[in-house]
Structure formats: C-alpha cells, structure tokens
Amino acid sequence: MNTARTPALPKLSAYTTLRLGGPARQFVSAVTSEDLVAAVREADAAGEPVLLLGGGSNLVVGDAGFDGTLIEVANTGWRRDGAVVEVEAGQNWDAFVAGLVEAGLGGLECLSGIPGSVGATPIQNVGAYGCEVAESIVSVELYDRRTREVRTLKADELGFAYRTSVLKGTDNGVVLSVRFEIREDGLSAPVRYAELARTLGVEIGAHVPAAEAREAVLELRRGKGMVLDPDDHDTWSAGSFFTNPIVPSAAAEAVLARITDSVGSEVPQYPADGGVKLSAAWLIERAGFAKGHPGPGNRVSLSTKHTLALTNRGDATTEDLLALAREVRDGVSERFGVRLHPEPLLINCVI
Predict the structure, then answer these.
(1) CB 118 within 8 A of CB 87
(2) How confident is the model at residue 10 (pLDDT cuts 50, 70, 90)?
(3) What is the reported pLDDT for 100?
(4) Which neighbouring-strand residues pair with 6?
(5) CA nearest neighbour of 162 among 118, 124, 196
(6) What gap in Å lies between CA 146 and CA 89, rounded to an integer?
(7) If 0-12 CB within 10 Å is exposed, 13-18 middle and 19+ buried, where does residue 265 land?
(8) How many CA atoms lie within 13 A of 32 on its CB side?
(9) Which residues contact 151 (CB under 8 A, 6 or more apart)?
(10) Model pTM?
(11) In terms of DSSP bridges, do strands 275-278 and 246-248 run parallel, antiparallel, or are they unpaired?
(12) Residue 124 has what DSSP assignment?
C-alpha cells in the first residue's frame, strides 16, 4: 500500500478552506484508488473511526478535532474516452474543469471556481449558476464499506436531488472515481442563470464557447469572494454555509404571505420538487444580517461580499463560527418562520 503516515497530530485547520479544526489522532495520505481502499479497509478492520478528506472545502471541524484516522483522498488525474471522462476522486475540481476548457471541451464550465475535489461533487450534487453535476455524471466507482467490495453506481442509482444524493449523510460509500459526459464541440452547457446570461450578453438557454462561460463564472464568483485567495479573508469559508430552503407546497402560501407582510415586497421564489425554493441569502439580508455582519470578537463574520458565506477573519475558532451560524439561523427563523440548514459537513460539532 503506497500511503504516507505521520505520527504527528496534524490540525485539520491546515486542510480546510475555513482554516479551522483541531487535531486528528492519525493521518494517512492515499495516492491511488487501491491505496484508498486499503487504508479504509485497514481502519475498518481495526475499528478505527475514519474521516475522508478531499479538498477540505465543505468541512466544518470542531475545535477538539477528530479522534480517529484522517485519510487524505490524494489520487489524481483523468482519462478520456470520447465524450466520457473518468476522473480520480482526489483530483482538484477546478483544475479538472480548467483542463477540459483548455482542451476545447465543454459541459462543466458553469461549475468553474468551486473549491474541493472531484470525489465530493456527487455526494452533495454540487451546483452553481444553473448547473449541477447530476446533469453530467454517468457513474461513480466507489468502495462499499458494508460489503467490502468496489462497486459502480450509475447516475440513476445515485438519487440526485437539490444538494444531495444517496451518498450524503452516510460514510458507507467511499468515492474512488467519477465519470462525466462532456461536450466535444467546445460549447458550454445551456446558460440558465439570469445573472450569468446578463454577464455574457446572451439569452437564457444559449450556448457559448466554454472558455467564455468559464471566465464569466470566475468573474462573478470573485466578486462574491467565492474563489480561494489566501490573502482575502472573505474566501476563508466553506462557500455557501446554508442551502436555499425548500418550503413544502402545503405551507408555501402561508410562509410567503408572512415574509411578504414582513418585508413589504414580493419574495423571490423558484419551483422545486415538493414545494418552493427560496433564496437563503435574500432571507438572511432581510432578517437584518448585512454583508460583513460580525460574530464573536470580530473573529468571524459574514463575508463582506456575500451574505451566504461565513468567514474566518484570521484567528477564529470553530465555536466562533458556529455561534455566528446559530445567530443567523435563529434570526431568519424568528422573523420569517423558515429554518436554514447548513450545507457543509459538520464533524464533531453542531449548530
């Protein structure tokens, strides 16, 4: 098994985009799919708790850290067979998207600039600017910890929905690689997001050269502090901290009326399975939380560029961040009767 172990107690703050989190008891770096399977099997056989680490962009780790083995998913690279590309789980997502665009291939460019690894994308059905990976994923190869076998799940077996899949909320399936269908004509996926369409100067549903769509998306993300920059504390975050809430159809009329009465204006709403999807950022702002709203000791705050990102201003603790998350969640709930739910995975901590 080609893995690297360290006897030290690495702090997870060195591996997360929030730069928060206490130590792990043991650290293993798996550089191939075979190494990853072997490392998980070994830990499981020993009854050792396991935390899988990709890009660290969707993790909030408690200050006490993780009392178990942290396994870094470090297998990288991809190979193409016509319109299908198979990508190793540890591959940096944006480097992969950039590589596709540079090769004159399209389909994933609207997901440019998203931090993290490829293996994490099917778990929560990563999406942005009108696109989701569910639209392009062909299949996922994973190690099933229950049967101790490597399996392939096709897209229709993954239970994709808004920011979720059958892989979310369980650690039974360890993603080894993901297969995507891409466009060989170099054009983008259909432009569905109004803000992106305006930036590109095209109609909704249009296709543009993938490189143009990528640059436009990166421009929009930078303006919201959503492209990683070590010198910009607005990017010391886990991206969007709360998912956009979906209000069940049976409650939608009453909830929308309450919000409208409270703010005196129409509520932005979007159709969703089983109900109506609302904008978490819009609700947060109208509940009284402005960009830059501070948390404990000014060590954390909402991003100065986007209210949906909770940020570490440099010397925060995880508990500081969670206190701010609770304040925002409870404020929205008290004003509008809508409860926000965190998007990142919470490890050894709760809000």
Answers:
(1) yes
(2) confident
(3) 98
(4) 27
(5) 124
(6) 20
(7) exposed
(8) 6
(9) 141, 142, 143, 144
(10) 0.89
(11) antiparallel
(12) T
**What one-letter code names the amino acid at 220?**
L
Q: Which two tokens stand for residue 203?
A: 């109609």
Query: Alpha helices, DSSP H only, in the chain?
Result: 33-45, 93-102, 194-200, 210-223, 249-263, 280-286, 318-336
* Predicted confidence band of residue 124 (pLDDT cuts 50, 70, 90): very high
Q: Which of 72, 132, 285, 343 is catalytic?
A: 343
Please name which of 274, 130, 299 lies closest in space to residue 200, comparing C-alpha atoms. Answer: 130
User: With 70 as the cut, is the pLDDT of residue 24 above it?
Assistant: yes
Q: Report how far residue 221's alpha carbon sits from residue 42's, in angstroms, rounded to the nearest whole number.
A: 40
How many CB atoms neighbour CB 119 within 10 A? 27
Q: How many residues belong to the chain?
A: 351
* Residue 313 contacts residue 231 (beta carbons within 8 Å): no
In degrees and rounded to multiples of 5, residue 124 shows phi and psi of -110, 20
Which two three-digit tokens encode residue 192? 């569905």
What is the DSSP code (8-state) at residue 251? H
Let me know if 240 is a catalytic residue: yes
- The encoded tokens of residue 326 equal 């609770």
Q: What does the block give as tokens for 225? A: 């502090």
For the question of residue 163 being annotated catalytic, the response is yes
CA atoms of 341 and 334, how far apart (whole Å): 15
**Which 3 state secondary structure label does DSSP give 102?**
helix
Q: How far apart are CA 174 and CA 143, in angstroms?
A: 5
Of 29, 88, 112, 163, the catalytic one is 163
Q: Which of 13, 33, 57, 240 is catalytic?
A: 240
pLDDT average, residue stretch 185-193: 97
Q: Does the annotation count 117 as an active-site position?
A: no
Residue 313 · residue 233 · CB < 8 Å? yes
